[in-house]
Each structure stands twice: as C-alpha cells, then as structure tokens.
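Example (one chain per record):
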Amino acid sequence: MFAAVTACAMFWAPAAFADPDELRFRLGSDVTYDDNVSRAQKDDKFHDTFATLNLGARLPWQLWATSRLVLNANIGGEKFNTYSGLDRLYANIEGEFQYRKSGQFSEPIWGVFVRVGEDWYDSTLRDGFRNSAGLTFRKPVTDRIFLFTAVAYNQRDGRSAVFDTEEVSVRANVDYALSRRQTLYFGVEGRDGDFVSTARPTLAYFDIAEAAVLDDVFTDTARLSYRFKGYTGIAMIGYNIALGEHAALDLAYRIAYARPHEQPPSAVTTDTINYLDNQATLSILVRF
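Predicted structure:
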C-alpha cells in the first residue's frame, strides 16, 4: 500500500519534489521502569527496567501547495535488565499523506498513514511483523495548545499464533507550551481487540483465551502466554524541556488497564481477569 501511494504521487504530481535539505534525523535514548512486563496480575506480575535506543529519519515530500507526503523511518532496540527474552531490535517505515486547506494558523492538518515494521526478539515466539493504517488530525488550538488525534487499525503477525493480534485504536494528545522551552503533554488511548497476558496455567484463563502457548521468557516455572479479546485503556502525562536548539529532556508516566470482553463463569472463579501496568520513562532526545 505504501509503495502504491508513493508511485501514484510521483505519477500524478510531476512538479512534486523532496528537498534533501528538509531531511531530519532524531536520536532518542530512554530508560523505562515497567511494573508489569508480563501483563498479568497478582503473583504473575513481574517488574523490570529496560533501556531503548532509537534512530529516526523524516523527509517531507511536497506534492501540491495544500498537500505533502511525509516519509518516516526508524530503527532501534530495547535491552531489559532481568527478562532478556524481551530484548528486541525493530525497524519501521511509514508514509503519511497530509492535507491542509490553507496556511492559516488555526487550519487543521488531515492525514492518512500506512506503517509497516518488523520485530526481532530474543524470544522466538514474539518475532514478527507489525502493520498499521489510519487517519490523523492535527490542529493548533491556540499559540500554546496543540491537539493531535488518530484512529488506526493495527495488526501483528507473530511467530506464534498467540502473538497474532489485531485491534482498533483511538487516541488523542494535547500539548501545552508552558514557555518557549517547556511543554506539558497529556494523552489518552482506547483499544478494542487482542492483548496478551503471561501467567501460570489456570482453568479460568483457558476458559476465555483465544490461544495459548508455553512462554519462553518467564521460565521460573511453567507459564503460558494467553491471547484475549478485550478492551485496553491508556493514559499518559509528560513533561519536556529543551536543553538547547537540538536537544531535549523528557519525563513521562503511563498507565494501562486491560480487561477481556468475557469473564470465566462463576463456577470456575469469582476473580476478575484483568491487568494494570505502570511505566515511567526518562528520555534524552537529539535532533540533527
């Protein structure tokens, strides 16, 4: 799909151009504490700290006076302190067609995007491809407030059927500029589709799981990864401060709650199956 969009743009817009001077790179280095890397509950909950290094490139390609194609690509890796099976390398490429009716400050930007990527884990079960497509909306509300929303369909094709997931997501972010160098941001996201939880073999989980497999990361005892159909809600708050013209420090907190559409019958268990996850991330961002 991405190749087709690019080819059509080249054919129908001979005046279009991509200026190499507009090519921008971004390097990010993060440290994250996650209190539930197994995405489970009670005694099946495990915490860990991981480091991330990410290199991205962005190139806007002007098509017409009111539209452009923005190409994004990034590669990176994550290294976990304890559960090394979650270590991964990844690569993504994205194309987004953006339209803005005029150059007026308050005029919104509408977008259509397609993203493809691949993950390589130390866990062979989790290796696979990721695909995403959707619509975006960006609008400066005031000179201090910027709004971003997106609706997307996300699909993952893992080595194991448990990690073959798909979902529909809706998210919104608001940036508030405290000053020229400081920004406070908030985000919410809702997902409806598949999610995976890793826990010990339990009849209650088997009763409602779409698929299950013996996990190869959490191996202190026999644990299974289960795929459920359900809802996930995510909320985020963050603070960004510029360290100069091309660098910034970022601190973010995220909380996620997931619950299957169905719960096991009371004859099996009276407990509710769900999970709660908290993350705190400190990042250094460099643009060049």
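Caption: The longest helix spans residues 2-12.
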